[in-house]
Amino acid sequence: MGIAVDIRHAVKRYGTVTALHDVSLAIDDNAFFTLLGPSGCGKTTLLRLIGGFEEISGGEILLFGQDIARLEPNQRPVNTVFQNYALFPHMTVLENVAFGLKMKGMDTAARTARAGRMLEMVHLSGYADRLPAQLSGGQQQRVALARALAPEPRVLLLDEPLSALDLKLRQAMRVELKTLQEETGITFIFVTHDQEEALTMSDRIAVMNAGTIQQIGTPRDIYEAPVNRFVADFIGETNILDVDVHTASQDTATLSLCGQTFTCPATNATPGPHHVSIRPERVTLAATGLPATVERVIYLGTDLHVITRLASGAEMRLRLQNAGRLTPPEPGTAVHLNLEQGALRLLAD
Amino acid sequence: MKGVRHYPGFRTITLGCLVLLYAPLIVVMAYSFNGSNSITQWGGFSLHWYADVFTGPEAPRFAQAARNSLTIAALASTTATLIATAAAIAMVQGGPFRGRQATFALINLPLMVPEIVTAVATLIFFSAIGLTTGYLTILIAHIAFCIPFAYLPIAARLQGIAPSYEAAARDLYATRWQAFRLVLLPLMMPGVAAGWLLAFIISLDDFIITNFVKGAGMETLPTAIFGAVKQGIKPNIMAISTLMLAVSVLFVTLAWFINRKGQKAT
Amino acid sequence: MATPRRTFLLLPTWAVLGIFMLIPVLLMAVYSFLTKEFRGGVEWQFSLAAYDQFFLTRGLFGDEPATVEWTYITIFWRSIWQAALATLICLAIGFPTAWFIATRPPATRAIWLFLITVPYWVNLLIRTVSLKFLIRDNGPLNEFLMALNVIDSPLPLVNTNLAVQLGLFYSYLPFMVLPIYAAVERYDTALSEAAADLYASRWTTLRDIILPVVKPGIIAGCILVFVPSLGAFLAPDLLGGAKTFMIGSLIDEQFRGSQGNWPFGAAVSMVLMTLVLIVLMFHARAQGGRA
Questions:
Q1: Ramachandran class of A6: left when φ > 0, alpha when ψ lies in -120 to 50, beta otherwise
Q2: Which of A114, A343, C136, C148 has the most C-beta neighbours closer than 10 Å?
Q3: CB neighbours (10 Å) of residue C105?
Q4: What is the ipTM of this complex?
C-alpha cells in the first residue's frame, strides 16, 4: 500500500489571514480519509488546495509522488464532489456525468456508454435524460458522485457532500459511500464537521482546528485516546477535569483527582497541573469512589444523563444505559462515582 | 378577520393607479383607428392613419427616422451588452482588485447624472473634439448610457451563479475557455438576453440625449415625433405611437418570459 | 484558478465610459468657466460670467452693486418643489400599490407587477404626448366629464402645475413602486401578527412597525423619483407652460441656436448635478451607516 497524497508544509494565506499553518499529512492509497473539524478550521481550504481551486501560498502537494501544487484543476487526476453538488443545471444527468469524459476527449459513443454504466452504479439508470432540478436531493448527490467518479480519478475529494440531505438519507448514504470506496479502490478524502459521520465511515481521521492538524488516527484512536483538550471536547461528549500529576514515567502517570490517586497511560508527562478527559459512559454509580451530589437527571430513552457535582466543585456528567432496571437517582442525593479501568485520559494541554 | 396584511382601500388605489397608467395609452390607441380626419370626432373604425404612416406625405421622413432608431438601438444595445458582459464577469467573479469601487461608480455614472446633464456634457465633448454631430455621435452616446442598463441584469444573474459551477467544470478537465463557453455562458445567457432587451428599449426610448447630439437634419423616431407634436397632435402620430407601443410591449413581454424561464432552470 | 485576474475585461468599460461619459462631464465643468461665443459654443478664456449670471445681478446696466439674482434660483426652487411634490404623490399612491401587489399570492403577484411595469417601457415621449392628448381642453377626458354633466365647460388642465405633476407621476411611478415592493416582499408578516397580538390596530401597525421596517425601500423609491423629476424635460415642456418653467427647459434653451449660452448652460447643469450628487451622497451615507 503506497501513499496517495502527501502534503508537505502546506501554507495558505488570504491577505494577512493565515488559513493553514504548515500542514503536513500523508494519506494512504485506497483509504477512506476524513478531514474533521469545526467550520473555519481550514479543512475545506486544504481540500480545495488538493483540488486546485485555491492557490497554495507555500509547501508541496504530492500525488503519487508527483508535485501537483501548482497545476490547474483540469490538469490534476483528482475529482471533487461539491458541497451543493454544482450539477450543471442546463445539462441533463447524462451530459453532466459525461462532461469530464468529453473534456478528456473521449468520443461520444464511448462516453455515453461509460456514463450509463456510472449511472447504473449509483442506481439512477432511468434518470439519464432528466435535468438536475427534476431530481431529489439524494438523487442529485448520487449524480454528483457518478460525475466525479466517471473519469476514474486517482483520488476523490468530497466536500461535506451529505450536509444538504435529511437525517435518514444521510445515514443511508454513509453506508453507500463506504461501499463505493471499497468497491472502486479509489482514495476518498472526505471533509465534514460531523463527528458521527467521520467515525462511522473513515479508515483514518485528521482532526483540524484553527488551520492546524490536532491529531491523526483511526476513529478508535481519536475517540478513546484524544491527545489534547480540543480533540477530546470536539469528538463526542466528555468531562474535562483539573488534576495534579505527582510522578510520571515514560508511559504512565500517577495523578490525584479530588484527593484520590489514579494511574493512567501517558507518554513523557511532566509533574504539575494537567487536564484529564473522562467519557461520561465510562463513569458509573457505585458504593464507593469519588463522592458527588446529583444535580439533575435527564431522560434520553436509551440512556439516562446524570449531572453531578464533585466535592471540588467541578461538574461530572454520566451516561447510564437504560436497561429497564435502572431507578434514577433523585436530585440532591449523595452518590459515589466509579471510574472504569482506563477511563482517565491525560491531555497534552 | 381578513389577516394582518389586508389594508382596506389599497386595492382601490392599485386599480386606480392602473387606470391612470393605461388610460392615456388606450385612448391614443383607440383614436389611432379613428376614421375621421379630426382628432376630436369619432368617425368609425379605420386603418386610414396606418396607411398614412406608410404611404402618406410624411412617410419617407418617418421611415428614415424609424430606420435610424432601429439600427442605432440594435448596434448600441449589442455593443453595450458585449461591454457590460465582460465588465460583469470581472466585477462579480473576478475577486477584489484596486479601483473596484471606482469602476462600479463609473458604470453607474449614467444612472446617477441627470439625463439632461449627460446630454449637455456629451454635446460639449463632441463639439470640443470637432466631431460632426449626426448618426455616429448618437450611436456613441447611446452605447455609453446603455452600458449600465445592460450591466444590471447580467450582474444580477451572475451573482446568482455559484462559483462552484465553474470550479466543477475545471475539476472535470475543462480549460478556462471551455468552462466559460460550456458552463458559465449558458448559465448567464438569460441575464445577457434581458440586458440586451433592456438596452434596446432604453436606446429606442431616448429623446433628451439624442435631441442634443443629433445635429441638424438627423432624426430618430422620438425626435421626429417631438418635432411633429410641437405643431399639434395629429392622428398619424397616434398611429406611430401605437406601433411603437406595440414594439415596446412585445419586448417587455419577451424579457419577462426569458427572465421567468431563467429563474426556473436554477 | 482561485480568483483569477480578470480586470482586462474591464478595459472596454473604462474606455467607453471614461472617454464618452466621465471626460464629457469634466469638460462640462471646464466649459462653465469659459467665455460665451455668440453663435453658441465658447471662447477659451477663463470667466466667472456664467455663475455670476446665475447667482448675482448688477441692475439693468450692470453698474449697480451686486445683489442676489432671484430669477434662476426661483426656477431651481420651483423645480425642487415640483419634484418633491411629485415624489410625495408617487409615495402616497405607490406605497399602497406596492403593498397590495406584494401581498398577492405568488402566481398573480407576477402579473400585477408586470401590469405596473409595462407602461414604463413605453416610450416616455409617447406617454407624455398621450397624456396631453387625453387631458387637453377638448380632449376625451373633458368630453367625457361634460357628457356626464360633471362640468359645464372644459377644465383647463394643460399648461398647469397639475398637468406637470400628472406627467411626472406618470413618468416615474414604477420607480417608486418597485423598490418598495422589493422591501415589502421581504417583510416578515409575523411582525404584523406580533403587533396585532400586542393590541396594535391595523393603522398603528402600519405606522409603527411596517413603515420603519420597509423604510430603506421607501427612501430608495423617493430618490429614484426625485432625481429624474428634478431634471425632467418632457413633462414640463409638453404639459406645462411659462409658469411651470423648470431646470430642464432652462438648460435646453441655452443650447438652442443663437440665443444660447453654452457656459451658462454648463453652469446650470453643474448646479443641477451638484444638487443630485448631494442627494445621492446623503442616501449613500444613510445606507453606509445602517450596514
A1: beta
A2: C136
A3: 6
A4: 0.87
Q: Percent of chain B beyond pLDDT 90?
A: 44
Whole-model pTM? 0.82
How many whole angstroms separate alpha carbon A240 and alpha carbon A232? 8
What's the pLDDT score for residue B47?
A: 83
Q: Which residues of chain B make contact with C196, given a CB cutoff of 8 A?
A: 4
CA pair distance A231, A240, nearest whole angstrom: 11
Residues in contact with B71: Cβ distance below 8 Å, sequence separation at least 6, in sequence order: none
B40 touches chain A (CB under 8 A): no
**CB–CB contacts below 8 A, A to B:** 68
Cβ of residue A14 closer than 8 Å to a chain B Cβ = no
H helices of chain C, in order, are 11-17, 23-31, 49-55, 70-102, 106-121, 124-135, 140-147, 161-186, 189-197, 202-205, 211-230, 234-239, 247-253, 262-290
Tens digit of pLDDT for each residue in C57-106? 887 777 788 888 888 898 899 899 999 999 999 999 999 999 999 998 88
The helix/strand/coil state of A79 is strand
Greater pLDDT, A113 or B43: A113
DSSP state of A328: P
Give the whole-angstrom CA distance, residue B93 versus residue C4.
8
Helix (H, G, I), strand (E, B) or coil at A303: strand
- 3-state secondary structure (DSSP) of residue A208: strand
* Residue A114 backbone zone (phi > 0: left; psi -120 to 50: alpha; other: beta): alpha
- What is the reported pLDDT for A159? 92
- Least CA distance to A69: which residue of chain C? C1
Residue whose C-alpha is closest to residue B31's, from B48, B53, B51:
B48
Q: Measure B98 CA to nearest chain C CA, in Å.
A: 10
Instruction: Find the distance separating the first CA and the last CA of chain C, reported in whole Å.
Output: 31
What pLDDT is recorded for position B173?
92
Distance of CA C279 to the CA centre of its chain: 12
